Amino acid sequence: MTMIAAQFGLVSDDNGVLLAAAARGDQASWNELVRKYNALLWSIARGFRLSTEDASDVVQNTWLRLVENLDRINQPDRLAAWLGTSARRECLQLLKRNTKTTTVEELPELRDPAPEVDTSLLVDERDHALWQAVQRLSDKCYQLIRVLMADPPPSYADVAEMLGMPVGSIGPNRIRCLDKLRKQVEKLP
Amino acid sequence: MNEDELLQRLRAVASEVDGVPDHVNLAAEAALGTRRLDEELAELIADSAEHTPQLVRDASDIRMLSFRAGAVGIEIEIDDRLRGLVTGARGTVTIETPGGTTEAELDERGWFTADIPEAATVRLKITADDGTGVVTSWFTR
Description:
heterodimer; A: mainly alpha; Rna Polymerase Sigma Factor, Chain: A; Arc Repressor Mutant, subunit A; 2 domains; globular; B: alpha+beta; Immunoglobulin-like; 10-stranded mixed beta sheet; 3 helices; 10 strands; 20% helix; RNA_pol_sigma_r3/r4-like (chain A); transcription (chain A)
């Protein structure tokens, strides 16, 4: 498989191969890793309700960490969990820093910027309502649902590791949070 | 809608209104350019921000970080500026952000100071007089 891919100048889909090639400086392999996991990292940052600027910083820092550790990823098939865990750590550090630098003079809206998304792109009113309802979920549900919404969705084992939750709790929480979401949507006019 | 359909719908909505911005994809791709092969990585061995309880911290406290690679030690204090002490090597310090670099001189006792932007992610590269190099892991002010 790998040999065929190399022969036709294609990029592998195996994380171990991609990491090793990226460590040798192969940009195409690195870009493939970015393509595979950038949406997941973005979802994690947004799951912490970070602004576009803060989420961008978190995602970039996470990739910088991977570059630093290209030779040390022991379980390439669990790379999603490794990246997700790093991203979560970056989010927590950022929130801690923001809390620390916040002073009483600051305006409340500067302190807690809502993610800047353009919902006018949604032509279907039901999609609009659904998106509004997702935003109103509790922090814990919002985080989980945002991660499960990533494309492609990560495995439960990876989700558990990156969110610091027991793996057995992902399924039940998924049901509970989606149920809440459905009730929210039904309540909307 | 069952649960899978609901999630699928959400996934479609999210990619429409909150997809990964282009600049984030480009920055992620460019990150490979920060790979260093010639320098030894100095690992973070202590960070005061990791251990100090939130409640006793205030805006005036000083963040302290320690890095080590073999015989080379790098101690950093950050308040308004960054102040550092390099032990085990003499030479120059390069302060790197993903977007650029600035240089700082080590004084005769190994101290240096630098200005770094707030919330910047940086790393320090120590180029010793004998040509060997050490680079710290990335940290965010």
